[in-house]
Design a protein that fits this description.
- By secondary structure, this protein is an alpha/beta fold.
- Helix 11 packs across helix 12 and helix 11 crosses helix 13.
- Strands 1, 2, 3, 4, 5, 6, 7, 8 and 9 form a 9-stranded mixed β-sheet that branches.
- It is elongated and about 80 Å long.
- The chain has 13 helices and 9 strands.
C-alpha cells in the first residue's frame, strides 16, 4: 500500500493520459508533444498518439520522439478520422484523467495542473478553457484575430471568453475516464463536432461540463486562405449534421452565416437583373425590392471594410488588409457548408485542409 505522502500525491495529482489523433502534422506535432512533456505537473503522465495514414513526414517525426521518450506511445488509426483516433488512444491509455490535445495546439506549462485541480474542485466530468489563437505569419495572425472577434468566430465561450462556470461545450477537454466510459466514448460517425456531441451526452447523463477561463491552449490556425476555407466549409457541414441529429444542436448564431450566403446570392442575382434592365417593365414595388436586394453585397462589403479597420487587435496594416479576405472567407465557406449539410447531411465529408496530396 502506498505511504501517506505518495497516497496524497496520487489523490491530488492523479495520473494523466494525453490523447491526440494526428494526420499530416509534421510541421506541428513536435511542438505539441514538447508542450505536453514540459507540463509542470507532479502526477504520472503518458502520451498516446493515434497515427493516421499521413503522406508527409509525421510518422517519422513521431518515431524519433518515441525512441527518445518512454512515456510516448502510438496506436494505428487506419481511417485517419479524429473520433476513431481519439477512441483508439483512450482505449490504449491507462490513467484516470484523459486530456485531449490537438496537433495544432500547444499547452501552457500550467495547463494540466490547473485543469486537474478544476476537475477535482468542481466535480465536473469535462473541463475546458480558452482557445488562444496565435499566428506566426501575417495571414495566421489575421485568422487568429477573427477567431476571437464577434465579427469572426466569437460566440462560443472558448473563443471569446466568459466567466467560470457550467458550459455547453468545452474546447479539447480534460475528462474523468469513468465519465467517458459511462457515455461510450466519442461518436465515430461524427467526423467533426464530436467534442460538442460528447459534451451533450455527458450533460444528458447528469455530468457537468465546466469552463475555466484561466486555462489557455495556444492554437495555430491554417496557414493559407485555401486551407482555411476548406476547414470552415467542412465545419459548417458537420455543424448542420449536429443540428439534424440533435434539437439542442441549434443556435441563432449558427443561422447567421447561411442566411448571409442566401442574401448575398439573392443580391448578386438582383444586381445582374438590374444591370440587364430586366426590371424596367416590372411594378414599382417589385423594382424597389430588387434594388434593395442588390444593395446587400455592397453593404456587406462595406461592413467587412469597417470590421477590418475597427476590429480591436494589435495588427499591422498588412494584417488588417488580410482580414478583408479572411472574414468573408470564414462567413461564406461556413455558411455554404451549413446549407449543404442541412439539405444533404454530412455523408462522410472530410476536412481536406489537412491533406498533403
Amino acid at each position: 500500500m502506498p505511504d501517506s505522502p505518495t497516497l496524497s500525491r496520487i489523490i491530488q495529482h492523479p495520473g494523466v493520459s494525453y490523447v491526440m489523433p494526428i494526420l499530416n502534422e509534421a510541421e506541428h506535432i513536435e511542438a505539441a508533444v514538447r508542450s505536453i512533456l514540459d507540463q509542470d505537473y507532479a502526477g504520472e503522465k503518458e502520451i498516446v498518439l493515434a497515427l493516421g495514414p499521413s503522406t508527409d513526414a509525421t510518422n517519422d517525426v513521431v518515431a524519433r520522439m518515441a525512441a527518445e521518450e518512454p512515456r510516448l506511445h502510438t496506436v494505428d488509426n487506419p481511417t485517419g478520422r479524429t473520433p476513431a483516433g481519439l477512441n483508439l488512444a483512450i482505449r490504449a491509455s491507462q490513467y484516470p484523467v484523459v486530456v485531449r490535445v490537438d496537433a495544432h495546439t500547444e499547452l501552457e506549462p500550467g495547463y494540466t495542473e490547473r485543469g486537474v485541480a478544476t476537475l477535482l474542485r468542481t466535480g465536473a466530468a469535462d473541463v475546458g478553457g480558452l482557445m488562444d489563437a496565435q499566428g506566426r505569419t501575417p495571414f495566421q495572425r489575421a485568422v487568429a484575430t477573427a477567431y476571437v472577434s464577434p465579427l469572426g468566430l466569437g460566440g462560443a465561450a472558448y473563443h471569446s471568453g466568459a466567466p467560470e462556470g457550467p458550459a455547453e461545450s468545452a474546447y479539447l477537454g480534460i475528462f474523468r475516464r469513468e465519465a467517458l466510459d459511462a457515455v461510450g466514448h466519442f461518436e465515430e460517425t461524427l467526423w467533426r463536432g464530436q467534442d460538442w456531441d460528447m459534451c451533450l451526452r455527458l450533460r444528458q447523463a447528469g455530468y457537468a461540463v465546466w469552463f475555466d477561463p484561466e486555462l489557455k491552449v495556444t492554437y495555430w490556425p491554417r496557414s493559407t486562405w485555401t486551407k482555411m476555407v476548406r476547414q470552415f466549409y467542412a465545419a459548417g457541414i458537420w455543424r448542420a449534421e449536429l443540428a439534424r441529429r440533435h434539437k439542442e444542436g441549434k443556435s441563432v448564431r449558427h443561422f447567421l452565416p447561411p442566411l448571409l450566403v442566401i442574401a448575398l446570392a439573392a443580391g448578386l442575382a438582383a444586381d445582374v437583373l438590374l444591370a440587364a434592365g430586366a426590371a424596367a417593365a416590372w411594378p414599382a414595388w417589385l423594382a424597389v425590392l430588387l434594388l434593395l436586394a442588390g444593395l446587400v453585397p455592397v453593404l456587406y462589403a462595406l461592413g467587412i471594410v469597417y470590421a477590418a479597420v475597427t476590429i480591436k487587435a494589435d495588427l499591422t496594416l498588412s494584417e488588417r488588409l488580410r482580414l478583408l479576405a479572411v472574414l468573408p472567407g470564414i462567413h461564406v465557406s461556413w455558411g455554404l457548408g451549413y446549407l449543404r449539410g442541412r439539405v444533404f447531411g454530412a455523408h462522410g465529408t472530410v476536412d481536406t485542409s489537412r491533406r498533403k496530396s
